[in-house]
Write a structure and sequence with these properties.
binds pyridoxal-5'-phosphate, 14 helices, seven-stranded mixed beta sheet, four-stranded antiparallel beta sheet, 409 residues, 15 strands
Length: 409
């Protein structure tokens, strides 16, 4: 296990009590807290380096551009991207997937084609494809999941028989914690002639990611879920695909020459970064990555797996509690229900003990329908959580159960 006390001391917000209690922050799949190193990097950027990037002829603007491009290289190295110019900064995973659907999808998907997603996809990796298919008259095919919350590989195979243009799936499910066999899925999808889009919102913060080993084509990530600032994120793509794609947004920065009625475009990645970028977010994300590298992505993944396993072991012993998702090949996300207690009531009661968990459909309504629930409660762990917080979660949950007339086993 990681030295949680030491790590926790790096996160100012975690030192702040909630409802008079020590804060137990277990909503990391939604967003993570930020270490002092990230706060300092952002403040230092504004104190010493701020100017608009790429267009300044003066030294300050050159330094700002360097900070921004160094951050891009940092993101590229962290996920073993094909090249730094294959990293397009976005506001997060949602914007990255919309970019792929809006630029690659619009140019390549036609009436009668199909696009494949899975029943465990977050709305971010579903609605952009719905919009594309509606616009183009294409078919959206949703691959089913198994009873224990994995992608159903036979149904995946059936979906590929139609030779879809695009196949999109999450690396890690935000609602089930399932870690999908992404390299295997990408290989199958490529053999079926598709381009592969991986939603990396929940994998990049928690696993050692190598996009070239996965052999996907596009990979989306959110910086705010990996200790970075809100509004930071990236699309990581094969450069040749970005080169061939039309632009997504129009405006400054993304052009080369502009005439009255048409324009030529900048080289990648700038072709996809119209307007003034969020330099602060990129700089903060680079600092977040440096922090994660110091701790070690593999050690973080082991730590979270141990916390999730401990939580599941304890939760399943409480009569009336159902834990969703597989027992193995999972990350530190634990979704559960407790009898007929509404997950929102669970979250509200836990909040009285200073414990923050998520309750709701987790932006995965098709998945909730398949689980036959309207909502679940979800605890999601990160590197600053400890086993004592698993105990706090379980203790508070038992108290909640008692309030609703459930007697703990
Ligand atoms: N995909 C998954 C699996 C997620 O968990 C999330 C956020 O919860 C997203 C996509 C969307 O990320 P963002 O809101 O940072 O764009």
């Amino acid at each position: 296990m990681l030295d949680v006390a030491r790590i926790r001391a790096d996160f100012p917000l975690l030192g702040q009590p909630e409802n008079g209690r020590r804060l137990v922050y277990l909503d990391n799949a939604a967003t993570t807290q930020k270490p002092q190193a990230v706060l300092d990097a952002v403040a230092e950027y504004y104190r010493t380096t701020n100017a608009n990037v790429h267009r300044g002829a003066y030294d300050l603007a050159i330094r700002a551009t360097e900070a921004y491009e160094t951050a891009r290289a940092k993101v590229a190295a962290f996920v073993n991207a094909w090249a730094p110019e294959g990293v397009v900064f976005t506001r997060g995973t949602t914007e990255a997937i919309n970019l792929v659907a809006g630029a690659y999808g619009r140019a390549n998907v036609r009436a009668g084609d199909s696009v494949v997603v899975t029943a465990m996809d977050h709305h971010s990796n579903l609605v952009p494809w719905q919009l594309l298919c509606q616009e183009k008259g294409a078919t959206l095919r949703m691959v089913e999941i198994t009873e224990d919350g994995r992608i159903d590989l036979s149904d995946f195979g059936r979906a590929l028989e139609r030779r879809p243009k695009i196949v999109a799936f999450p690396y890690v499910s935000n609602a089930l914690g399932t870690v999908n066999p992404v390299a295997q899925l990408a290989k199958l999808a490529h053999a079926g002639g598709a381009v592969v889009v991986v939603d990396g919102a929940q994998s990049t913060p928690h696993l050692k990611v190598d996009v070239r080993a996965i052999e996907c084509d596009f990979y989306a990530l959110s910086g705010h879920k990996m200790l970075g600032p809100m509004g930071s994120g990236a699309l990581v793509a094969k450069p040749e695909l970005l080169e061939a794609m039309p632009p997504y947004h129009g405006g400054g920065e993304m052009i080369s020459r502009v005439w009255d009625d048409h324009s030529t475009y900048n080289k990648i990645p700038h072709k996809f970064e119209a307007g003034t970028p969020n330099v602060e977010a990129a700089v903060g994300l680079a600092a977040a990555i440096a922090y994660l590298e110091r701790v070690g992505p593999e050690r973080i993944a082991d730590h979270e797996r141990a916390l999730a396993a401990a939580a599941i072991d304890k939760l399943v012993q409480i009569e009336g509690v159902t834990v969703y998702g597989p027992r193995d090949h999972r990350a530190g996300v634990v979704s559960f229900t407790y009898g007929d207690i509404h997950p929102h009531d669970i979250a509200t009661i836990l909040d009285q003990d200073g414990i923050c968990i998520r309750a709701g459909h987790h932006c995965a309504q098709p998945l909730m329908r398949r689980l036959n629930v309207a909502a679940t409660a979800r605890a999601s762990f990160y590197l600053y959580n400890g086993l004592d917080e698993v105990d706090a979660l379980v203790g508070s949950l038992v108290k909640a159960g008692a309030l609703f007339g459930y007697v703990p086993a």
